[in-house]
């Protein structure tokens, strides 16, 4: 078979393979030989396979056992539902459609459900096929109970995996590094290249793509949302701190030193809270220190020309660090069960803090109820494929027709190219496996002891080699497993392998047709569309944020607005979430070309996140005081330049966007007030960062003055 797997990889899967084989044998052999209950034996065999091999349970043994325990009642309910709907082919197919839609779409709300969805689907698949025998339901449920119990025991006792650090602990480690670096900056105004590199590397390690699936806070509840926000804020904090340490030296500044002390204390406090400790200083501490810093900066005497530009730039970058510290400290409190009090913070940034759990789930579901959502696309594609497979298998009266659905479930990919690659390999593997299994059946005949002795070793080999060997190895070895198992339940001939080959090819064909007809490009097309929608949605936010420095804005309705409103922020936030979901799937799909040949989608997502962060924090309550006409014109021109650049990037993503924002230095030296100069530099840092993000996202060289708060990561 093609794709010989690495022995090292295979041995890495052997612990799980042994657990699944033990659980399957512990239920199958007593049911088949002591109880003489073939139905119980079948369900006792496939339940551990469903949740131990087909599902992606991860984490420690206790965590995996907890997932099995939670899934067992749902598995029993789906077996009962499938048994009842097996009365007709159409009833079973409609049930398959509804069950798959509910499970696949519901998995978007909680990662723990996502890990067991394939196993739950297999439970319904097994039960919804003929014969229609509702009287066997007690035996089926007994088999599920035996299989789940054996798997639960195996997860707890056999080859327990070492405990991995949680995402909260990883964020806490990053915050400890931030606190340590801040103390270095208190002693010296810069850090060496090695420290800056370590800060950025640690920030990149907080990305979800670097985390095990069970550690990713992707749920719809308050805790997961807050923990995800704490992680993204910590990443931004580390990047900004590295940029702060790389700035040229500036004159001593007491206010900045005081704020650095506050940042260090806040990072250490947030790290302790995330590790389960008690808070010494709440989020109010750093929020108050930031407000005091802004007051001192605004009330600074004019002097001869005011503070030098280098000091203004350093203060502005320090302010971005403090803002990130405020955000991460508040998110840490919410993630650990703290109260929803958000003193001084914009409601939009922590909109979920006061929302009950059920409405949060509804928000997640409603946000993905669009054909542009990859969650919606995957749910519809999978549900239609499985329902069609059930209809075809029932209408053609295929022997062992549930193998058709199992093939769709295991071979369908998010792209047509990926599905075709999997189908080709699976067909070759199944053919070879069927030939070998047929030869075994012809040679062993009715010698049940031979099959009984081979079942456990075959399961260990199949579940350790199959996951790393690819579809060919997985399907070929699984053919051997089902052959040795079915030969012990009822007399079989080599025609069993013929039936399996026909069923696998039928299921593969159905999966391929669905892959070709339903969003065949997977997340690649959606990535471009969702990023374009994100860029268009952020353009008015950029304009409104810049205009807020020139004074109060008048809304089309005639009302006065002091900052970007929910009317412009919510569409941008929604589009950012959709784009992030598309990017998460995009990175799981095989690359059709080098990443260097296309747009940098991560830079586009960084742009959207930076737009929203600036919209939350930059706008002053009454605009910039004493802003002369020249400065006002610079603000309006620069804001509209970046907004127009975002629209061009959305319409022409492959041609590049180069923005040349006029320098601010002449405007700063034009006699504006100290407070206005500081706000202008804050805006300049933000706009140049956005311009750099747009240039990187569209493959253009970085424009204008280098922004020290941005470093590209791919």
- How would a textbook summarize the main sheet? 2 strands, antiparallel
Mean of pLDDT: 80
Low-pLDDT stretches = 2-12, 554-561, 701-714
**First-residue to last-residue Cα separation:** 35 Å
Sheet with the most strands: spatial strand order: 1-2
Count up the helices.
Answer: 26
Q: How large, in whole angstroms, is the Cα Rg? A: 30 Å
* Helix content percent band: 55-70%
Q: Encode the helix/strand succession as letters.
A: HHHHHHHHHHHHHHHHHHHHHEEHHHHH
Shape: elongated
Strand content: under 5%
Summarize the structure.
This protein is an all-alpha fold and 714 residues long. The chain has helices at residues 7-12, 14-34, 38-54, 61-85, 89-106, 111-127, 137-157, 167-187, 193-204, 222-246, 254-274, 283-298, 309-335, 357-367, 374-395, 402-411, 416-444, 448-469, 471-489, 495-517, 523-547, 566-586, 601-617, 629-651, 665-668, 674-697, and strands spanning 553-554, 560-561. The longest helix has 29 residues, at 416-444.
What this model shows, in words?
With 714 residues, the chain is an all-alpha fold. Helix content is 70%, strand content 1%. It is built from 26 helices and two strands. The protein has helices at 7-12, 14-34, 38-54, 61-85, 89-106, 111-127, 137-157, 167-187, 193-204, 222-246, 254-274, 283-298, 309-335, 357-367, 374-395, 402-411, 416-444, 448-469, 471-489, 495-517, 523-547, 566-586, 601-617, 629-651, 665-668, 674-697; strands at residues 553-554, 560-561. The protein has a two-stranded antiparallel sheet with strand order 1-2. A hairpin with a 5-residue loop joins strand 1 (553-554) and strand 2. Helix 3 packs antiparallel against helix 6 (111-127). The longest helix is centred in the middle third of the chain and has 29 residues, at 416-444. It is elongated. 53% of the residues are buried.
